[in-house]
Amino acid sequence: MVAFAFGHLFMMHYQRAPSATGAAFVAGRWAGPAWRAFDGVLLLLALTHGVAGAHGALRSRVRPGVSRAALDGAFAVGLGAFACLGVWAVLAGPRAPGSAPGPLSGATWIPAALLAGLAALAALTYAAGLAAAGVLCARILRRLPLGRWVYPGQWAFALSRLAGVGVLGFLLIHILDVALVPLAPDLYDRTVTGYATPFLVPMEVALVAAVVYHALNGLRLTTLEALDIRAARAHTPLFVLVLVLTALLVLPSLAVLLASRR
Fold first, then answer.
1. Residues contacting 30, CB < 8 A, separation 6+
2. Which terminus of the chain is more solvent-facing, meaning fewer CB atoms within 10 Å of its CB: N or C?
3. Please, which pLDDT band fits residue 230 given cuts at 50, 70 and 90?
4. What is the number of other CB atoms lying within 10 angstroms of the CB of residue 4?
C-alpha cells in the first residue's frame, strides 16, 4: 500500500495541484485499464486500512455487548457502502465527451456540501494542531513535567494515529467527490476547483504530510520489528529520520501548490 500511496501522491500532488485534476484529467488517466486498476486497488487498500484502524481504536474503548456490536455493524456497513461507491465510480469511468449531462448535474448543492465537509475537516485539523502546540508550549514555559511525552515513541504513536484519522476523513469525502465523475462531471470540476481556496490549501499540505508520515512510520515499525532486540537503540534515530524525510517529501507538493496560485 505504501507504493500505491506514493504513486498516487506523485500523480495528484507532485506533478500538479489537486485543483487541476478535473474531470478531463481523470478521463485521460482512466482511458486505459491500468490506472483504473491502480486507483481501485489503492482505494480498497486505503479504505480497509483506515476503517480497520479507526474501528480498532474505538472498539477498545467500548464495553462488550450491544454497544460494541452496534459499533461493529456501523463500521461494516460504512465500509461496504464506501467501498461499493468507490469501486463503482472507477468501473463506470468518466462520461463520454458530448454525452448528456450526468443524472446528478442538477444537484448544484453537492459541491458546496463536499467543500463544507472539507472545510470542517480543515478546521478540526487546524484547531487540534494549535491546541496541541499551545498545551506543549505552556508546559514547557511553566517548566512542568511532560510525562510520557518525553518519549519519542509516544510522539510517533500519537502522530501516526492523528495522521491516520485525518487521511481517513479526507478519503471518505474524496470517494464522494470521485463518484461525481460518472454522475456529474461538471460538479466534480467545481468541487476540485474549490480545493484551491485559501482556507483549504494548508490542509492539502497537511494531507500530504499525513500520508507520507503514516507510510514512513509504518515502514519504521516494520524495521524495528525486524531488528527485534536491537530496536531499542534504533528507535529514536529512525523516528527522527521519518520526521526529516516527511518534511523533505512535503516540499515538492508545497512548491506545486504555491506555483498553481500565481
1. 36, 39, 90, 93, 94
2. C
3. low
4. 16
The grid cell for 166 is 485525518
Q: Quickly tell me which residue has 474549490 as its cell.
A: 194
pLDDT of residue 247: 95
Distance CA 136, CA 159 (A): 14
Burial track 93-121 (b if 16+ CB lie within 10 A, e otherwise):
ebbeeeeeebebbeeeebbeebbebbeeb
Sequence-distant (≥ 6) Cβ neighbours of residue 172 within 8 angstroms: 82
- Which helix or strand (DSSP H or E) is residue 7 part of? helix 2-9
Output the CA–CA distances (angstroms, integers) from residue 76 to 51, 55, 73, 80, 238, in the order listed. 9, 9, 5, 6, 35
Q: Considering only CA atoms, which of 54, 53, 40, 30 is closest in space to residue 4?
A: 40
Q: How many domains does the chain have?
A: 1
Query: What is d(CA 67, CA 206) in angstroms, rounded to the nearest whole number?
Result: 33
Q: How far apart are CA 217 and CA 213, in angstroms?
A: 6
What is the span of the domain harbouring residue 17? 2-260
Could you tell me if 182 and 94 are in contact, meaning their C-beta atoms sit under 8 angstroms apart? yes
Using pLDDT thresholds of 50, 70 and 90, give the confidence band for residue 119.
very high
CA distance linking residue 248 with residue 250, whole number of Å: 5
The whole model's pTM is what? Answer: 0.92
